[in-house]
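Hello forum,

I keep getting stuck at the same step: I have a sequence, I want structure tokens, and every attempt I make locally crashes halfway through. Rather than fight my setup again tonight, could one of you with a working pipeline run this one for me? It's a single chain of 351 residues.
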Amino acid sequence: MTVRAFILTAIIATAAGAVFEAIGMFLPWLLGPMFALLLVTQFTKLPLYWPKILRTAGLVMLGIQIGSSFTRDAVLLMAVDLPYMAFMTVSVVALSIGLGLLFKRMVNESLATSLLGSIPGGLAQMVVLAEDIPSANITVVTMMQTIRIFMVVTIVPFLTIFLNGRGAGEMERQVFAFSPSLFLLAFVVGVVLFAGMKRIGFPAAELLAPILTMAVVQTVSGDVLIDMPYWLIAIAQVCIGANLGLQMEGIGDKLTFRLGAAIILNNVLLIGFTVLIAMILAQLLPEYIFLDFFLSAAPGGIAEMAITALAVGGDVALITGFQLFRLFFILLIAAPIVAFIVKKLDAKTGY
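Reply #2:
Ran it on my machine without issues. Output:
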């Protein structure tokens, strides 16, 4: 049964990607599978299954592709941009907290639910934090995070169609030269880093370990280790898009009109605010383009924003750097502090 369900899911995902590609849709191999499987799960009873290992494989491939953008010059430039990363991250997190308080008033949910659902720290990570807080409604947190990801993954790439990216001649040319010794070094570093991140329970290790490995090895060596072909990147996108589509299964059955309206307003305001932040940074750093900062500030996943950057001519290293900084800040500082404060307040109220 599982094998048949997987084959059916793979056929639907691949066919949807091919259709989106044929009609010229944006990010066809990511959005095609995601939309198709979301619709199938909502309106049919067809048995669908997507193994976790394929999602992992997709994230690893994408992590390698993203990591290859981190040349020595790009990494050194990131160090210079750290104050701007901090400004963008703190601004987005502060607004998220404010929107969480607004959401609490609109739908009368608990403070824990409203804040953990509003902070853009990743679906799995925020749900894990919510599970540890008695006053948090895990279902609502899951819906808030899922709908945010869905809105960002659909709205942000659509908006970039109207923005100017870089042409092929403007992109930094990366000279790829195969080096067996460097490949072996990168493999060993990647395995050790991945194992260490998994051991301590660090989120998104499948994506972050390859990115950090490529960044470190390429920065030290000064060489570009790999140049992935389009078809392999397309396969990675299908693996990720299919998983995203199935993650949203049954979400329509759990939404009330008031809750849905509050979540949509929350996310529209957040995306609108990232446009403002991007405009400010584009003025402060004229050597970059608005598109770079828009994708850097967008509250989506690193994988989805990097795929968008690859497609529209954004600075992948800069965008990924900003997204990584925000992820680390939220997971290591902001979310734990919010969870600690909420637990203290719950203890005082005797929840």
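Residues 113 and 136 are 5 Å apart (CA to CA). If your local run keeps crashing, start a new thread with the error log.
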